[in-house]
Description:
Blueprint lengths: L4 E5 L8 E5 L10 E3 L22 E4 L2 E4 L14 E10 L2 E9 L11 H17 L7 E6 L5 E7 L4 H17 L20 H16 L11
Antiparallel strand pairs: 1-2, 1-3, 4-5, 6-7, 7-9, 8-9
Helix pairs in contact: 1-2, 1-3, 2-3
Bound molecules: zinc ion.
Zinc ion binds next to α1.
Amino acid sequence: xxxxxxxxxxxxxxxxxxxxEGVAEDHAEGGSSFELGPEWGLERGVGKTCRGFPHxxxxxxxxxxxxxxxxxxxxxxxxxxxxxxxxxDRFGETTxxxxxxxxxxxxxxxxxxxxxxxxxxxxGATFLRSHGEWGKRVVYFGxxxxxxxxYLILEGALDSRDALxxxxxxxxxVVAFEGEIPGAKPAECGNYSEQNLGMAKWxxxxxxxxxxxPRPENLAYPA
Length: 223
Ligand SMILES: [Zn+2]
């Protein structure tokens, strides 16, 4: 029986390596777990190194093990607008799903302008959190820093198709929206006047067209 040591376990999905006490099962390349040697900067004296490391999805930075996080492993050059499962994370009994609501083909078309992005954030958050069926399961909705889309986090282990009806409802509502943008007052927002409802509706309409008739490549990241 091998002694329990500090081990890292490679998850089935990129970016899901975890650490703990255990038995390193297989040190061969492609093995599912590995002893943490000194090269990891985390544990000294374990000694044995694994041939498969450092594997391409992880690296050591200043002695701290860092994963190349899952969303940076998606080939953005082949990504088209769509609804993708970015990741699922489990916390105790609860699983939450992060959706990548991609509006723009990255690095190929102009990104969403900031005022429209901001308006879509206000409208989206308002609609989603008030939704009768899904409202209580909405963890987060907000824009990507690259301005090519949004992240939506929902409670549950979900697939892209699970989110489609909710997203269609949301963007039908955005396209038809008239009146005062929710939360766009100085006391309610950090930059309240930076809004563009017209452009938000234009972007929403464009995204809605994809949502109404998604192709397989709009629902799964490029392999
Ligand atoms: Zn705001």
